[in-house]
Amino acid sequence: MKYRILSVIIVVLILLSVPVSASNYEYTITTDNNFISARSGDDLTAISEKLNITLQELNSHFTKNGLIYIAVSEDGKSQVKISAFTDNFSSEVGDIAYLDDTVMSQFIESVSDGSDSPAYVVTNNGRKFLCVKNTLQDKGGVYTVTQYITICNNQTFYFAGYNDGEDTSEEISNIFKSFKLNEASTTSGDKKVQSSDKLTISTILINCGIVVFALIAVFALYGIIKSYFKKDQEPNENEN
User: Fold this and answer.
1) Exposed end of the chain (fewer CB within 10 Å): N or C?
2) Exposure on the CB side of residue 201, measured as CA atoms within 13 A
3) What is the pLDDT of residues 60-104, one digit of tens each?
4) CA–CA separation, 152 and 148 (whole Å)
5) What is the distance between the alpha carbons of residues 156 and 212, in angstroms, rounded to a whole number?
């Protein structure tokens, strides 16, 4: 637990040291009746009670991590979080569709570093995402974190799904399939990143480092929340 908390603190400090900001966005997403959900600006009371954390802690998490959406299953075993940032990399790229093969390969390689398996490209509702998946284990058991990353309208979007088990659940996959970013009309259709000269390897590595550290953060946060939730469900030995 100490290591998870330390990881979260380190990631927050790193993110605060890089010029990033929460962004404007338009998106649609659908979950079934098994989930309760909230968007940025909504009342988070029900979510905080489900996760067994204070409303202040959850509001702080939304603010510090650019969170725009969260959904939690009734049994607490599955979660979905979406974050959005404008950073140097997303501002330079504009849209993931503008990356040529060389820069996309560098992006994939950087995101894959430190993961259980290499990142790969998936297409969802006509948009490319990098998918990276990690299976972890703690005292509560085995769980999988699946992260989908894209760049749209000069913003980096992170869709993170969490579920018990050794692979991405059908439930998380279906929620991701419903996720759609609505592209703003201000995006130039002619803008493309044609070579790695415009986006240097060092720039990609630095900015993709944010992605990697963000992954560490969501793993750590999920473990903390999961521990809180399971602890709350455990019977009190003193009750007998």
Assistant:
1) C
2) 4
3) 989 888 899 999 999 989 999 999 988 888 888 899 999 999 999
4) 13
5) 13
